[in-house]
Amino acid sequence: QYVPIKRGSRVALMVNGLGTTPLMELLIAAGKAVAQLQLDHGLAVERVYTGSFMTSLDMAGFSISVLKVDDAILQRLDAPTSAPAWPVGVDGPRPQTTIPIALPPIPSSLNKVPTCPQELTLQGKILELAIQAGAGAVLKLKDVLNDWDSKVGDGDCGTTMCNGANAVLEDLR
Question: How confident is the model at residue 85, as a pLDDT?
């Protein structure tokens, strides 16, 4: 049976890494979750706990838990502890959780400045062909790079490199 959490409820959020998810990615997930809890569900996020609290060795991914809180529960969550993975309570006031604000749109009146000259020299044309060949080679290696990266990382190196290669190719157009 779930505890009913209604608009205006106070909650604590826990983003738990399952084993191999980097802290940076957990923090990104926590930031997105806080915004969604506040904006979409109208909840007051009182605490955010991000880390590896309960793991399964090499398991990828994370879990998100939302706990309805009141002052008594917050006092217990903030209490000092010797539990190895639990963040030790911090005394003093806590900053308000901020709601992310979208960047304003770029005015359409701005003219795009060309990044390359209209006419390339012979050396410029050779360089452009070399860049296109290099970017094309990276695109063909996407799956191989992802596979290698999955052995020692999070398996997205090929995808990231392809995004960069596509951006370079787009800039050449």
Answer: 73
